[in-house]
Specification:
This protein has about 350 residues and is of the alpha/beta class. The protein folds into three domains: about 5-105, Helix Hairpins (Orthogonal Bundle); about 120-245, 3-Layer(aba) Sandwich (Rossmann fold); about 275-349, Regulator of K+ conductance, C-terminal domain (Alpha-Beta Plaits). Helices cover about 50% and strands about 15% of the residues. It has eleven helices and twelve strands. The strands form three sheets. It has a six-stranded parallel sheet with strand order 3-2-1-4-5-6, sandwiched between helices. A four-stranded antiparallel sheet has the order 7-12-9-10. The protein is elongated and about 110 Å long.
Length: about 350
């Protein structure tokens, strides 16, 4: 399945059943109108008598004729019996299907979500599935990362629940219980992408308070629409704040002023079969605590070590060869696709 197809709107089983039931109900109404008009025209009956005869005919309750019927009226009655019974049977089948499938689907979804949520560790919590949340989820899926989505829109939740690879919870992201259900105590990152700045500030504060004891290293990314709210989000506990309009404006300006640099950065961040990638590698994957020059990445062809992000959060750029990298440090490198993984695999042999 193509990436663009993953989030294409689709019709779920419940939606299909509801649509079929609606169509059946319309057909039933049409048959009643047809019967009433038919008896009035063919037999000259009043509207009430025509309605009564149509109802007892379609319902097949076995009552007698309201008035004596002409041959044409009997043909109409026979037609109403066949068509009406067929429509009623169809409606009964669809209603039964809706009740049975609806219950089974709800149970299966609860079980699937419980299993997905129980397995989540070191994952990302995406709060809000708007335009930003949608783009983020597509990228997380492409990178095969674990995440859970929280959104209050029932249509969005139902659509995401039909995708077995996505854990999703319906409700208010500012609810403490929902955040715990999403595994905030074990999460690596939380993205506040709600519709307004006030909600994102409150969510940031709530998440920071909840994780103060059990998960103080939770990284919180918060969206802001009004730049004046940036300081509030930082004070509430956000590690990274971003204003989409500002980010886009800076990117366009950078493309105008430094097109070659922008193209290089784009090549290292885009998905696809590209030869050049920006890699971030945990120091422990490179071996025991050691100097950077002694690591498996140093001196590799087709690889350039750009920086080291220490466990304390300091960014060392450019790093010297005698820099000692420790567990928790992250080595940022620019390399051809597969070079870093090959170097690590070679060391582990």
């Amino acid at each position: 399945m193509a990436e663009s197809d993953k989030f294409r709107p689709h019709i779920s089983d419940n939606q299909r059943i509801r649509r079929s039931a609606f169509q059946g109900a319309l057909a039933l109404i049409f048959i009643h109108v047809f019967g009433i008009v038919g008896y009035r025209v063919l037999e000259g009956w009043s509207t009430f008598d025509a309605l009564y005869m149509t109802v007892i005919t379609i319902a097949t309750v076995g009552f007698g004729e309201t008035h004596a019927l002409s041959p044409a009226g009997r043909v109409l009655t026979i037609s109403l019996i066949f068509v009406g019974v067929g429509v009623l049977a169809y409606l009964f089948a669809e209603s039964t299907d809706f009740m049975v499938k609806g219950g089974l689907q709800a149970y299966r979804r609860r079980e699937k979500m419980s299993q997905l949520l129980s397995e989540l560790r070191n994952h990302t919590i995406v709060c809000g599935y708007g335009r930003l949340g949608t783009a983020l989820v597509e990228e997380l899926l492409a990178q095969d990362m674990r995440f859970v989505v929280i959104d209050r829109d029932p249509h969005i939740v139902e659509r995401l629940q039909d995708k077995a690879v996505i854990a999703v919870i319906r409700g208010d992201a500012n609810d403490d219980d929902l955040l715990r259900q999403a595994g905030i105590d074990h999460a690596h990152a939380l993205v506040c992408a709600l519709n307004d700045d006030a909600s994102n500030v409150f969510l940031t504060l709530t998440a920071r308070v909840l994780t103060r004891e059990h998960n103080p290293r939770l990284v919180i990314h918060a969206k802001v629409d009004d730049p004046s709210s940036l300081v509030k989000l930082e004070r509430a506990g956000a590690n990274f704040t971003f204003c989409p309009s500002r980010v886009l404006g800076h990117r366009i300006a950078h493309q105008i002023l430094r097109p070659a640099t922008t193209e290089l950065v784009g090549l290292t961040t885009q998905r696809g079969n590209l030869e050049l990638t920006m890699e971030e590698t945990l120091a422990e994957r490179l071996g025991p605590q050691q100097a950077l020059r002694d690591s498996t990445l140093w001196g590799k062809a087709d690889l350039l070590i750009l920086a080291v992000k220490t466990v304390e959060g300091d960014l060392i750029f450019p790093p010297r060869g005698d820099l000692v990298i420790r567990p928790g440090d992250r080595v940022v490198s620019l390399a051809k696709t597969g070079v870093v993984d090959s170097a690590i695999t070679e060391r582990e042999k």
